[in-house]
Amino acid sequence: IPRPSNSFVCYRSAYADRIKQWASEDNHQGVSRIAGASWKLEPDDVRNFYIECAELDRANHAKAFPSYKFKPKQKSTSR
Hints:
- The chain has 79 residues and is an all-alpha fold.
- The protein has three helices and no strands.
- It has one domain.
- The protein is 66% helix and 0% strand.
- Helix 1 (7-23) crosses helix 3 (44-64).
- The mean pLDDT is 89.
């Protein structure tokens, strides 16, 4: 079960295709780097829009998977 998206993931998803066109970036790392720099420069109203989108995604995720609880896996240390 995938985790619900946070505000930055919603923002990155919305702008990924535009970033690929503008910056000629075709790899995920480059797109994320540009989206991260752009996210920091966005005004509060844009950021608030994506915060609301993330809250909506979280609510829909809770309805779809009511018993979901995030449980990160422990990294195994093999030394």
